């Protein structure tokens, strides 16, 4: 009775606290129960229009969302508040609820209202990030999309809406990744991972314009096994022409280690070994000119590819070296770890040192890697490859890379494959 009286007299005579007492149990029960046929619009619409405060508005929307499945007028009411002008009167608290509960209500409203809500509120928020940044609402948007995209058998209209909205948000994300926004990129990656491979290829296509953002997303998908390691080929070929190579290598180092920790057929040891063998063949072809490089000198390109090789070996040889270099098992620190400091991802001085130290650690890491099964079966192949690179034309390798490769080769001299006379003679030039 009190609820109906409040619809007539408004907040001037009925305190908001009393209305809340009535609304809270109704909303709580509505989360797990479909009420009998009720004209929700006649009850909730006046409460939302009258100035009963943020909590009452949010409770009204919560009831409309949870009852939209069985009540057509609740769905209609919800649809009215998703489009202008009413959508502009929704509070931040109510909008946050709508965003995180997208999976509950999106199939109960018309496609045009769903798209209007996305254009006016979801996409508009990311377009406005260039001026002001609302981390909480941004996260709510992508969390809602992520949960909705995991629903089994969504309608074609809903799925098209989810994919289109995710793509537009991805395009609006800055290419330079701030560490404090890393969780936002990870959630967008989760949304993209639900799409077909062809859509992932199209949306995350690597180019010089979006290389950091696309690299981060693709490496996330690769390290989790969602995409095969073969995707790294195009990625590193494009990155070889980029000026900000240390950022790419730092992200590759993290992803290599994550791939090792994940149990998936695409990241298993045989797949990683196959990819690494393909990489050293590619490096050899570049060194001898059978695979040309563009927009960058030969020695610079080889320096980059050798750093990629070193990062993979360091990440896969043992656990101690990656941890000493600051590599973590997750992009985001755990709750009991220190939070990420502000700044661009992989752009701190310590990150640059980490990248350079991979080559320094290569001699020991490769020795450790080739001591393991099934890597040891290809020891001779790696020794031959090292010697072939050291015999490459003088202009192919920089002095630093040549020194590191020589040290790596010499450090393998205790292996049985190295002790053959032909190998020893070729390695030391006797």
How does this structure look, described?
This protein is an all-alpha fold. Among the domains are: 1-81, no CATH class; 88-203. Helix content is 63%, strand content 0%. It is built from 22 helices and no strands. It has helices at residues 2-9, 16-30, 40-49, 54-67, 72-80, 92-100, 102-105, 111-127, 135-149, 156-172, 182-193, 197-203, 211-223, 232-239, 245-261, 269-287, 298-317, 320-324, 349-369, 379-390, 399-410, 421-428. Helix 11 packs across helix 13 (211-223), helix 15 (245-261) runs parallel beside helix 17 and helix 20 packs antiparallel against helix 21. Mean pLDDT is 90; it is low at 4-9. This is Focadhesin C-terminal domain-containing protein.
Features:
single chain, 430 residues, mainly alpha
DSSP helix count? 22
Biggest sheet statistics: none
Distance between the termini: 101 Å
Proportion of residues in extended strands: under 5%
Shape: elongated
Task: Name the poorly predicted regions.
Answer: 4-9
Sketch the topology as an H/E string, one letter per element: HHHHHHHHHHHHHHHHHHHHHH
Q: If you average the pLDDT, what whole number results?
A: 90
Q: What's the total count of β strands?
A: 0
What class, by secondary structure content? mainly alpha
Radius of gyration over all CA atoms, rounded:
28 Å
Q: Percent of residues in helical segments?
A: 55-70%
């Amino acid at each position: 009775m009190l609820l109906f009286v409040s619809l007539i007299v408004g907040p001037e005579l009925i305190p908001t606290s009393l209305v809340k007492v009535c609304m809270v149990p109704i909303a709580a029960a509505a989360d797990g129960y479909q009420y009998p046929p009720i004209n929700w619009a006649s009850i909730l619409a006046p409460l939302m229009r009258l100035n009963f405060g943020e909590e009452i508005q949010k409770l009204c929307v919560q009831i409309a969302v949870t009852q939209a499945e069985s009540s057509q007028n609740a769905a209609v009411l919800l649809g009215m508040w998703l489009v202008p002008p009413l959508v502009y009167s929704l509070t931040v608290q109510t909008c946050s609820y709508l965003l995180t509960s997208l999976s509950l209500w999106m199939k109960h409203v018309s496609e045009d209202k769903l798209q209007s809500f996305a254009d006016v509120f979801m996409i508009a928020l990311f377009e406005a990030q260039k001026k002001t940044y609302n981390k909480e609402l941004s996260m709510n948007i992508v969390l809602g999309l992520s949960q909705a995209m995991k629903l089994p058998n969504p309608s074609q209209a809903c799925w098209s809406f989810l994919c289109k909205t995710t793509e537009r948000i991805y395009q609006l994300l800055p290419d330079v990744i701030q560490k404090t926004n890393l969780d936002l990129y990870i959630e967008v990656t989760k949304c993209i991972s639900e799409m077909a491979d062809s859509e992932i290829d199209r949306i995350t296509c690597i180019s010089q314009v979006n290389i950091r953002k696309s690299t981060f997303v693709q490496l996330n998908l690769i390290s989790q096994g969602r995409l095969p390691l073969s995707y790294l080929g195009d990625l590193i070929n494009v990155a070889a022409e980029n000026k900000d190579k240390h950022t790419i290598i730092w992200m590759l180092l993290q992803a290599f280690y994550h791939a090792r920790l994940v149990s998936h057929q695409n990241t298993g040891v045989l797949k990683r070994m196959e990819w690494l063998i393909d990489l050293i063949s590619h490096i050899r072809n570049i060194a001898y000119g059978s695979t040309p490089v563009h927009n960058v000198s030969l020695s610079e390109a080889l320096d980059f590819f050798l750093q990629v090789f070193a990062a993979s070996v360091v990440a896969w040889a043992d656990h101690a070296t990656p941890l000493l270099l600051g590599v973590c098992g997750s992009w985001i620190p755990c709750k009991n770890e220190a939070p990420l400091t502000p700044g661009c991802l992989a752009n701190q001085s310590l990150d640059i040192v980490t990248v350079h130290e991979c080559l320094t650690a290569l001699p020991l890491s490769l020795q450790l890697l080739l001591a393991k099964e099934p890597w040891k079966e290809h020891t001779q192949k790696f020794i031959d490859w090292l010697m072939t690179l050291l015999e490459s034309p003088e202009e192919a390798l920089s002095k630093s890379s040549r020194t590191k490769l020589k040290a790596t080769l010499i450090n393998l001299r205790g292996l049985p494959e190295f002790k053959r006379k032909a190998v020893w003679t070729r390695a030391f030039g006797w």
